[in-house]
Design goal:
This protein has 538 residues and is mainly alpha-helical. Among the domains are: 18-139; 214-378, no CATH class; 449-521, 2-Layer Sandwich (GMP Synthetase, Chain A, domain 3), CATH 3.30.300.20. It is built from 14 helices and eight strands. The protein has helices at residues 3-149, 153-201, 220-228, 230-241, 266-286, 292-321, 328-336, 347-365, 369-378, 393-402, 408-416, 426-440, 449-463, 492-509, and strands spanning 214-216, 244-246, 258-262, 341-342, 345-346, 469-475, 480-485, 517-521. The strands form three sheets. A three-stranded antiparallel sheet has the order 1-3-2, covered by helices on one side. A three-stranded mixed sheet has the order 6-7-8, covered by helices on one side. A two-stranded antiparallel ribbon has the order 4-5. Helix 14 links the parallel strand 7 and strand 8.
């Protein structure tokens, strides 16, 4: 065998020896590990038993300590429980005693109730007998009454009913008359007091502007220069302003100084008047008639300035009355009232006055003073539009502000202030009263002699329609109609009815500012003369 073979045999023998050695060493190590593990397990079990004994002992000590702490409280609680049980037992005994007493009282009440029921039955029996006797007596009385009156039962009932109704109506009429007179008396006193307070509190000036219906030449020289281009100037101004203009080329000596301006739109009339004033100033300065092209430019400038003023006036009246959220078109129309007059009273200032008066009256009566001022200011807005639209200015104004989102109460108050619709709420009557104060106070409006004569004639004609009227006097500038009647034809009650009838007829047939007081005078004059004295006179 060669060396390689020996080497392989040697390696194999070494591997076997190594394997045996590894097996025995491993077995020894495992056996020692098992022994160590048994020892550790035994030690752990012993330690656990010791710890368990310590825990048990500690738990017992804690339990004893806690019990010692709560033992006293526990004993107190047990004592309280025993006390409560004793109280419950005591109250139970008391309640049982009260229950026995209540039962005894109940039994007594039941006994009384039975006795009362017996008495009630006896009284009911007696009442039935009494009712039967009463019915028999009524029947006997009815038979005797019908026999004496020779009437049927229905006729007697009808007669009694008529008599009672008549008495009730008479009594009711007297009561109504009494309360009506009393109400009118106190209402008039309170109304006068409130109106007096409001007028005293009104701090603005009471005078109003007067309207201008014509434009006046400053001198004959200016008129002469103006008439050099009379036709061209008049036609140009008419085309621009929309108003008709009349200038007398051959006037009478006392009529040379004015130009008549005719037009329904007050703003256009004011534009024309301002334009003529500017023309006259330019003629005085330059001593020549105006150029037509320059005249057109001047008119446009004046128109622009006039529109600015209208806007300023609309904003000013709203600011003065403290009103917000007014539509711009409403402000514009309010500003145009600056050139509108009614019975020579400026409507711009009139609307402001009515707004203030309505606010003061509303404050006295407990209404919203700000809304009252708003309604009062807007009440105559339609007068700025009545030259363009048909209908009452109250209806026109109400429709205009309705389209500009005013509230329902304001619209109704504007529509109702001349009774185009029936007034319903407080604001309607506030506006009517404030309008009457502003238009009816002395000096507010000025009527011509012709309109005053027509008013007097109308009042006299209406009053003399009625029977018994002997004479009629119109006093206080047409604000009082005093009617004299024949006392033999018209009695006191007739005089009251006649006053109402005349006032109602005046309201229906006449148009007038403010109010008219109707007074019926009925008097009986008795006189007697004495005989002449025959004695001597010294």
């Amino acid at each position: 065998m060669d060396i390689l073979t020996y080497i392989l045999i040697g390696l194999a023998a070494g591997a076997v020896v190594f394997a045996l050695l590894f097996f025995f060493v491993r077995r020894h190590i495992v056996k020692e590990a098992q022994n160590d593990a048994r020892e550790l397990l035994t030690e752990a079990q012993e330690q656990f038993n010791l710890d368990e004994q310590e825990r048990t002992q500690l738990f017992e000590e804690i339990e004893l300590e806690l019990w010692s702490k709560v033992e006293e409280a526990h004993l107190l609680i047990e004592q309280k429980i025993e006390d409560i049980d004793a109280q419950i037992q005591t109250k139970k005994t008391a309640y049982e005693e009260q229950d026995k007493q209540a039962r005894a009282v109940l039994l007594a009440k039941e006994s009384e109730h039975r006795e009362a029921s017996i008495q009630m039955n006896e009284k009911q029996t007696l009442f039935k007998k009494t009712v039967a006797a009463k019915t028999a007596l009524e029947q006997d009385y009815k038979t005797m009454l019908l026999g004496k009156t020779q009437l049927t039962e229905e006729e007697v009932l009808a007669s009694l009913t008529y008599q009672m109704v008549t008495e009730a109506e008479t009594s009711l009429a007297k009561t109504i008359e009494f309360y009506e007179s009393e109400t009118k008396e106190f209402a008039e006193q309170r109304a006068k007091k409130i109106l007096g307070l409001c007028i005293d509190r009104f701090s603005k000036e009471m005078s109003t502007e007067r309207g201008i219906s014509a434009s006046y030449f400053p001198s004959e020289e200016v008129r002469a220069i103006f008439c050099q281009k009379l036709t061209d100037i008049v036609s140009t101004v008419q085309s621009i302003s929309g108003c008709d203009i009349y200038v007398d080329e051959n006037p009478e000596p006392d009529r040379w100084h004015y130009i008549q301006i005719i037009g329904y739109d007050p703003v256009r009339r004011e534009l024309t008047r301002r334009l003529f004033d500017k023309i006259f100033k330019d003629i005085e300065k330059t001593k020549r008639a105006p150029d037509i092209a320059d005249l057109k430019r001047t008119c446009e400038n004046i128109k622009t300035e006039l529109l600015r003023q209208i806007k300023r006036d609309g904003d000013l009246i709203a600011k003065e009355l403290g009103l917000q959220n007014l539509h711009p078109e409403v402000r514009q129309v309010m500003g145009s009232l600056r050139f509108r007059y009614s019975y020579t009273q400026n409507q711009y200032f009139h609307c402001a006055e009515v707004g203030w008066f309505a606010g003061l009256l509303g404050a006295e009566l407990g209404a919203d003073s700000k809304r009252s001022r708003r309604v009062g200011m807007l009440h105559d807005l339609g007068k700025a539009l009545d030259h363009e639209l048909d209908g009452s200015h109250a209806v026109i104004g109400a429709d205009f502000i309705a389209a500009r989102n005013e509230d329902t109460d304001t619209i109704h108050a504007v529509r109702a202030h001349h009774y185009d619709v029936q007034p319903e709420n407080d604001y309607d009557f506030l506006v009517i009263a404030a309008d009457a104060i502003s238009g009816g106070r002395p000096g507010a409006r000025r009527s011509t002699m012709e309109t005053y004569t027509q008013k007097v004639s109308g009042l006299q004609e209406i009053s003399k329609r009625y029977q018994g009227v002997t004479d009629v006097f119109v006093l206080n500038g047409g604000r009082e109609c005093r009617v004299l009647v024949n006392s033999r034809v018209v009695d006191d009650l007739g005089a009251m009815k006649l006053t109402e009838q005349i006032a109602k007829t005046i309201e229906e047939e006449m148009q007038y500012p403010g109010q008219i007081k109707v007074v019926v005078v009925r008097e009986t004059v008795v006189s007697e003369s004495t005989a002449g004295n025959k004695g001597h006179h010294r």
